[in-house]
Automatic annotation (TrEMBL):
Protein name per the record: Adenosine deaminase
Site residues by UniProt (Important for catalytic activity): 227
GO molecular function: 2'-deoxyadenosine deaminase activity; adenosine deaminase activity; zinc ion binding
Keywords, comma-separated and alphabetical: Hydrolase, Metal-binding, Nucleotide metabolism, Zinc
Lineage: Bacteria, Bacillati, Actinomycetota, Actinomycetes, Streptosporangiales
């Protein structure tokens, strides 16, 4: 192929998204509307473009802890049933408009109960929103219920993930600052999920290093790693350009453990220094099970198409690379095997074949 795909062409590609936070993808105008409707008065500005710029600027701190503070405002306006339905519906619509055919969107139910909603009411409101937003748009959205790693409600959230797994909840996650809050604090929840044959991913190897990844895999049994960027610390590129993998990196690659990488977000939190130097380039060349994701579309001022566009520019990726990343993601989704296969063979491969033929 002589020309790399343009952003508009990439938007037409059938894409799969595994790591996207519901409270990190609100439309600025929706935040302003909901703040007015719910009486939330903490916004830095009520100008749409000004608020959009504020989120982007506040997120470029290089610190995960400061980055997480931007969620005070999004979570602050997501405390009623109507607001949760609206945010979830718009999330599905925005992803579909970006060409996403399957998405797993995560959120922490415990963060949306300050005005009296029960955890069950929160979950049911979000599921209703995803149903409304997905209808007739060629997208399917699965939900990941997240427990906050600095709290002590992981077992409760894990039980809800199992309870609602037949109505759209496809898995479980833990999130929040890694340092000082190892995943082993929630070992009882992970052991419960394994007994129930349930799927889960763990934020690991983003702001903390190899011990976090090792614990997530070997102690907790994670199906996937949220980010996993620091696995690069266990890989040495030698003078002749060849790479030598340490024991943990080799295990992750050999076991095909999916890495949910979010390039722009990783720059903002200091987990990578630039797109061109992001570990995704080396990991792709070494055939790790790498996937491309958005993390928080509002904070990173991004979309899945935007992430692919940046990688295309940095690494010269073409349609075949994009298809490889996309199939990786679909293989790694928390859907039954036959449903994953149907999307790969019936949607993803034909969609990329059309784009390559048109190019």
């Amino acid at each position: 192929m002589s020309q790399p795909p343009t952003l508009e062409e990439i938007r037409r590609a059938p894409k799969v998204l595994l790591h996207d936070h519901l409270d990190g993808g609100l439309r600025p105008e929706t935040i302003i509307d909901l703040a007015r409707e719910t009486g939330y008065d903490g916004l830095p500005t009520t100008d749409v473009e000004g608020l959009r710029a504020w989120f982007s600027e506040a997120s470029n701190s290089g610190s995960l802890e400061l980055y997480l503070q931007t969620f005070d405002h999004t979570v602050g306006v997501m405390q009623t049933r109507d607001s949760l339905v609206r945010v979830a519906a718009e999330c599905a619509q925005d992803l579909a408009d970006d060409g996403v055919v399957y998405a797993e969107v995560r959120y922490a139910p415990e963060q949306h109960t300050s005005t009296g909603l029960s955890l069950e009411e929160v979950i049911e409101a979000v599921q209703e929103g995803f149903r409304i937003g997905s209808e007739g748009r060629g997208i399917r959205v699965g939900t990941l219920l997240t427990a906050m790693r600095h709290q002590a409600r992981s077992m409760e959230i894990a039980e809800l993930a199992v309870r609602y797994r037949d109505v759209g909840v496809v898995g479980f996650d833990i999130a929040g600052a890694e340092a000082g809050y190892p995943p082993t604090r929630h070992l009882d929840a992970f052991e419960y999920l394994q007994r129930e044959n349930a799927h889960f991913t763990i934020h690991a190897g983003e702001a903390f290093g190899l011990p976090s990844i090792w614990q997530a895999i070997q102690w907790c049994g994670a199906d996937r790693l949220g980010h996993g960027v620091r696995i690069i610390d266990d890989i040495t590129v030698q003078g002749d350009g060849t790479a030598k993998l340490g024991r943990l990196a080799a295990y992750v690659r050999d076991k095909r453990i999916p890495l949910e990488m979010c390039p722009t977000s990783n720059l903002q939190t200091g987990a990578a220094t630039s797109i061109a130097e992001h570990p995704i380039g080396l990991l792709r060349s070494l055939n790790f099970r790498v996937t491309v994701n958005t993390d928080n579309r509002l904070m990173s001022a991004t979309s899945l198409s935007g992430e692919f566009s940046k990688l295309t520019e940095a690494f010269g990726y073409g349609w075949d690379d994009m298809q490889w990343f996309t199939i990786n993601a679909m293989k790694s989704a928390f859907l039954p095997f036959d449903e994953r296969l149907a999307l790969i063979n019936g949607v993803i491969k034909p969609g990329f074949a059309r784009l390559k033929w048109q190019a």
